[in-house]
Design a protein that fits this description.
single chain, about 850 residues, alpha/beta, 5-stranded mixed sheet, 4-stranded mixed sheet, about 10% strand, globular
Length: about 850
């Protein structure tokens, strides 16, 4: 890639080194004492469950049981914002929470309650192996159960369960976990970016004015008049409530200032109050005010619904005009702007989400998850957009080193050298940020969804890996996890699983088995047939879930930030956005590819073993087949990830097979399905429900993660170094997976140390991007460091690791996931 340069700068030189890997007993990272105190306060807080939102939403629904659903959700939102307890903490400069104290999780009974009742009574949240939450006392424990019982029979889960057929259930998380739709089955969708640019120009008042105008212009000759009327009325109620809520914070700050005896803190509280009143309706006029409006507007999305991945879009673009104007007018310094960003970064972590134990098994972590912040890239005309704020946002990330925000750097052929180096300096710190996205294949994937070139160039990242179009796409990204290894199990065994309660039952179509295949082409034909069947079951299940959200949990507050909803008079859950996708993702691709490679080589090409012998080996979980087990885990068998066309072509077949069976299938909102190929960390939980596989995996081991090569207890299958891995990954057309791809790479600290190590990593990233792969992220952490953290977790409490699409505190992860991270191949240049 060509080397361009930029004059954009932060407060430190672009090549400033922030450290190498995690340091035990480290000193504070931020130069701002306030930020270090806020960070430590966050780490010291417990993870609680807060009852207030549950209480207020139930109160509102009971008072308005006869109202249309859109009005119910509006009155509930209004009731919460008028009555919820507000908090401004010591050292805060920006206020707003999610209707719960910092780090406490509210409850969202609109989606599901049966699991909450069950876990309180039988599997207490505080007794989980990981992701524990704590209820303050027995009185609140009883109140939660009582309030949740009101919602039984009224939730999205109840609606969905009543409509699913056995053929759908048998493959889902309620059955054999061939696919898992539990994320939206039990909770909100999220995975979006709102129109922050418009909000910053018009404020809440501008959105209200537009909604009132649309309501006034409705025609009673319109057959959907009543639905559109309720939609705009609900939107108006909710945005008026947002203004009231913002003013409440202004008043709270002013009241606290009157009682404050410290002159400096008194002035800060008065400024907080002024900022809140300034954006309680009108658009912001300063950088500080813009951050305050951003914080409240974003947390209100999470108050309305508990969807993951409410992401921040291209923040260095929509926020930059305020910084530029303030700097030019002398109203702010870069140093204070950076402090404000760091305060906000810490605050982004306050929101936590209570999840069911099944979801927690698939994905460890107590945050909402997926709050991606996208920087860099090109504009709608193809020009690089790096600016001072781009650099400051990376500095803030290196100084705070927390789970959120998930910083994503867009890269292209003219990405400035200074931005590359600054990103790599953050990566070398070993806390997992930023992740890197390649504009070329990502924009191509956006175009395949029907977007214009100008729109596609404006993509942002939501969640772990998913490209989305801010303010125009309601993409239902991350809609389901697909265990391709379990599909492969049925390819090998006549549509049946090998072991477990359902062993022997005809779950999928009988498309042949290793006992019967005469040619390798028959095996590949069977793969396609099983994938077609099971993706069909998943797709039909997701459409049922989609319609339940439309019926029971419309999102009028959120819809105001999607301009097309004003034009259509439809909520985002009804297909009101311009682009309406559904994005399920496949896991275990390399497990499947290496299994196929073993079958092709050993059974059909070399004829060293029969298909029946391989099938028996995995039925026996490799016991008694030690020689064969060692062989399939050795370099004597072709493996994906080694720049070996024999195996890589089979990975490509698997990748294209999944995409072909999902891409462009119509969904319930008038849009189309969009495939992704990534597992986040679900590969670990999926492995716990998957029998042995012919790649050399034993029963219950993780399946392969994301786009990465196989690593089993028998050894890592990639043995030729990082360049070979990249070459293998690049042999597929990543744009086919328009819902995203993900590659995790891990380097020990010494591999990237010094100027030489830094420059090697920069060059490696250049080569990766030149090969048109979509996305890559790094762990700079040795297995030795992670094992030390297992032995003395008290010394590593704030050690972040890049799990998959997200970073998390290593010592808070479950033991199986910790093991999976340790077993990933350590790469060296």
């Amino acid at each position: 890639m060509s080397t361009q340069h930029t004059t954009a700068s932060g407060t430190l030189p672009f090549d400033h080194t922030y450290g190498l890997g995690y340091q035990v007993n480290h000193e504070d990272w931020s130069p701002y004492p306030r930020v270090n105190r806020l960070r430590q306060t966050f780490l010291d807080r417990p993870y609680d469950i807060d009852v207030e939102r549950l209480r207020l939403v139930t109160e509102a629904y009971q008072a308005h049981e006869d109202k249309p659903q859109k009005m119910k959700v509006a009155y509930a939102f209004e009731n919460i914002l008028q009555k919820t307890t507000l908090y401004i903490y010591p050292d805060d400069l920006i206020c707003g929470e999610i209707a719960a104290p910092a780090k406490a999780s509210p409850i969202y009974p609109e989606f599901s309650v049966n699991w909450i009742i069950d876990e309180i009574l039988h599997s207490p949240f505080e007794e989980r192996a990981n992701d524990q939450f704590y209820i303050r006392n027995d009185e609140e424990r009883g109140e939660i159960v009582e309030l949740c019982r009101y919602w039984q029979g009224k939730t999205i889960e109840d609606s969905v369960n009543g409509k699913l057929e056995y053929d759908q259930i048998k493959g889902s998380q309620m059955g054999e976990k061939i696919f898992q739709t539990n994320l939206y089955h039990y909770a909100g969708a999220g995975h979006l970016v709102i129109d922050y640019k418009k909000l910053m120009i018009v404020g809440f008042n501008g959105l209200l004015e537009q909604a009132r105008g649309c309501l006034a212009e409705l025609s009673k000759r319109d057959p959907d008049y009543d639905e559109k009327r309720d939609f705009f009325r609900a939107m108006i109620i909710m945005h008026e409530a947002a203004i009231t809520y913002t003013k409440r914070y202004g008043k709270l700050a002013a009241d606290m200032a009157k009682e404050e005896t410290d002159a400096d803190r008194k002035a800060e509280l008065e400024l907080i109050s002024s900022n809140c009143y300034a954006v309680a309706g009108p658009a912001p006029t300063t950088f500080f005010e813009a951050l305050q409006l951003f914080n409240i507007a974003t947390f209100l999305i999470q108050i309305e619904s508990n969807g993951h991945s409410i992401s921040y879009g291209r923040m260095d673009q929509w926020l930059y005009p305020f910084l530029k104007a303030d700097l030019e007018a002398g109203r702010i310094t870069k140093e204070f702007a950076l402090e404000l960003l760091e305060v906000e970064y810490v605050k982004m972590n306050n929101a936590t989400k209570l999840k069911d134990k099944g979801t927690v098994a698939v994905r460890n972590g107590r945050g909402f998850g997926g709050e991606s912040l996208t920087i860099g890239g090109i504009d709608t005309e193809g020009n690089d957009v790096t600016n001072d704020l781009t650099m400051l946002m990376l500095e803030a990330s290196a100084h705070t080193r927390m789970m959120n925000p998930w910083v994503c750097v867009r890269m292209h052929e003219n990405t400035p050298y200074e931005l590359k180096v600054k990103a790599v300096e953050c990566i070398r710190c070993g806390y997992g940020h930023p992740k890197l996205f390649n504009d070329i294949p990502t924009i191509k994937g956006m175009l395949s969804k029907g977007m214009t070139l100008e729109e596609a160039r404006d993509y942002a990242v939501v969640g772990c890996v998913e490209p989305s179009l801010p303010a125009k796409e309601y993409g239902w990204h991350d809609a389901a996890y697909v265990n391709t290894a379990k599909m492969m199990e049925m390819v090998l065994n006549g549509g049946r699983i090998l072991d477990g309660p359902k062993a022997g039952e005809q779950l999928g179509p009988d498309t042949g088995s290793l006992d019967t295949y005469k040619t390798f082409d028959e095996v590949l034909t069977s793969v396609d047939a099983q994938f077609a069947y099971w993706t069909g079951q998943m797709i039909s299940s997701l459409n049922i879930i989609d319609r339940a959200h439309r019926q029971l949990k419309p999102l009028p507050y959120l819809s105001a930030f999607f301009g097309n909803c004003f034009k259509t008079g439809k909520d985002v859950t009804e297909g009101g956005a311009k682009y309406n996708g559904t994005g399920p993702q496949a896991a275990g691709m390399a497990t499947c590819a290496d299994s196929l490679a073993s079958i092709k080589q050993l059974v059909f090409d070399e004829q060293k073993y029969t298909g029946s012998e391989l099938l028996q080996a995995i039925k026996d979980n490799w016991v008694g087949h030690e020689k064969l087990y060692a062989l399939v885990n050795s370099s004597k068998v072709h493996h994906y990830g080694n720049d070996d066309d024999y195996a890589d072509d089979l990975f490509k077949y698997m990748f294209e097979c999944y995409c072909r069976n999902v891409k462009n299938v119509p969904n319930a909102r008038g849009g189309k399905f969009s495939p992704g190929v990534y597992s986040v960390n679900a590969n670990v939980a999926m492995g716990l429900n998957t029998n042995a596989s012919i790649d050399g995996r034993k029963k219950y081991e993780p399946i392969s993660d994301n786009m990465g090569p196989v690593h089993t207890d028998g050894g890592s299958h990639d043995t030729n170094g990082p360049t070979a891995v990249v070459n293998s990954v690049a042999k597929v057309d990543h744009s086919l997976a328009s819902n995203g791809t993900l590659l995790n790479l891990r380097f020990p600290e010494e591999a990237v140390s010094g100027v030489e190590g830094r420059d090697n990593l920069v060059s490696f990233i250049d080569e990766y991007m030149a090969k048109k792969s979509m996305h890559v992220q790094f762990n700079v952490m040795s297995s030795k460091t992670m094992r030390a953290a297992q032995k003395k977790p008290e010394d590593y409490k704030d050690m972040l690791v890049r799990v998959a699409g997200y970073s998390a505190y290593f010592v808070e992860l479950g033991k199986p996931l910790q093991k999976d991270l340790i077993q990933r191949t350590e790469l060296h240049f």
